Amino acid sequence: MTTVDRLRDWHRRGILEDAEHETLAALVRKERFSVFLELNAALYAGVLSLVAGLAWTFEVYFKSLGDPFIIAVCSVVVGACLYYCLTHAAPYAHHEVESADLPLDYVLYLACLVLSAELTYLAFRFPWFTAHWADCLLALVTVFGALAYRFDNRFVLSLALTSLAGWFGVKVSAFGWTSPAAFRTTALAYAAVVAAAGLTLHKQRIKPHFLEAYLHIAAIVAFATVVSGLRDPSLASLYTLALTGMTAAAVVLGVRHSRFAFVAYGIVYGYAGVSRLVLAHVSGATEILAYFVVTGALVVVALVMLARRFAPGE
Questions:
Q1: Are 227 and 277 in contact (CB under 8 A)?
Q2: Quick one: 167 and 134 in the same domain?
Q3: Residues sharing a CB contact under 8 Å with residue 27, sequence separation 6 or more, in sequence order
Q4: Are 247 and 262 in contact (CB under 8 A)?
Q5: Where among 151, 176, 201 does a domain terminate?
Q6: Which of 253, 304, 245, 293 shows the shortest CA–CA distance to 273?
């Protein structure tokens, strides 16, 4: 019996689903298979490399190239990319819209990155932009947010939320709040604003599929901030209570809504918090190593078991 025959038999007995049987049979027969993910990764890497090379060239040769030339090149690239996107994209809709063609998302991403590089160059060369850097970041948040919703692009949305985080950071520094406690408070405020924005837009049915992007960023920032707060002796109890509640909420809601990533956030960050508290009372290197070997293995096993539960068909 050949491998193809075995696959056919497993499919007949219900061991393999239709899609699994077709995929495995195609691989065995050495037929063509999808490289969509690999192609996407290569295109995004290409865009990042292009922008990085452009930024490096301008940084090294800005004296010989001149400010007008550099600004004009960046502006032309941004304008050409946006023109391409506007002329090739499907009309806007509140619901999810599939990209009209493969290059569109990458052209849009290129436009946003070049615009960021241009603004950074302006801040590097002209004091006015440096003095108003917070306003520039807020402008980027507005532009990236509008482009993300117009062209239904989660990567651009992530750029908008990252720029918003930068705006929060600049504002905190401008007020002279440089203590770790101030940065933690600001980070939690940022996470709350991001989560609230995502939930509000989801409730209004405006690109509701973007909600997870908002919640992922808010959850990561909030968990990381709370775990770092365990180092503060005066507020360790409060942060421990907050971490316990957040971990329970992430696991329960993640299971209820079938979102494994949030369950993983709760487990991993909860484990990090517990480890921090436990290791504060452990000094021996052998004990520390034994703790991580045993508990780390248990956490991995728990994540694998949960992942199987969330897998299709389980």
A1: no
A2: yes
A3: 33
A4: no
A5: 176
A6: 245
Cβ partners under 8 Å of residue 233, min gap 6: none
Stretch 257-262: mean pLDDT, rounded?
Answer: 88
Could you tell me if 312 and 186 lie in one domain?
A: yes
Q: Give the angle subtended at the CA of 126 by the CAs of 125 and 128, to the nearest 5°.
A: 155
| Structure token pair of residue 41 | 């990764």
- Same domain? 232 vs 302: yes
Shared-domain flag, residues 184 and 314: yes
Q: How many CA atoms lie within 13 A of 201 on its CB side?
A: 19
Question: Phi and psi dihedrals of 237, rounded to 5?
Answer: -65, -40
Structural domain range at position 73: 40-176
Mean per-residue pLDDT, 28-47: 58
Rg value, the chain, Cα = 24
Picking from 30-34, 62-66, 79-83, 101-105, which range would have the lowest pLDDT averaged per residue?
30-34
Region of residue 6 (left: phi > 0; alpha: psi -120 to 50; beta: else): alpha
pLDDT per residue over 156-206, tens digit each? Answer: 999 999 999 989 888 777 666 667 788 888 999 999 999 999 999 999 999
The answer to whether the CB of 117 falls within 8 A of the CB of 59 is no
pTM of the entire structure? Answer: 0.78
3-state helix, strand, coil in the chain (%, to 5): 80, 0, 20
Q: How many angstroms separate the CA atoms of 222 and 128, rounded?
A: 34
> Is there a contact between 110 and 81 (Cβ–Cβ < 8 Å)?
yes
Q: Please state the length of the chain.
A: 314
Lowest-confidence region among 54-63, 135-144, 261-270, 292-301: 54-63
In Å, how far from its chain's centre is CA 114? 19
Alpha helices in the chain (DSSP H): 3-12, 18-28, 36-65, 67-88, 102-125, 127-131, 133-151, 154-174, 180-203, 211-229, 236-256, 260-279, 285-310
Q: From CA 255, how far away is CA 170, in angstroms rounded?
A: 37
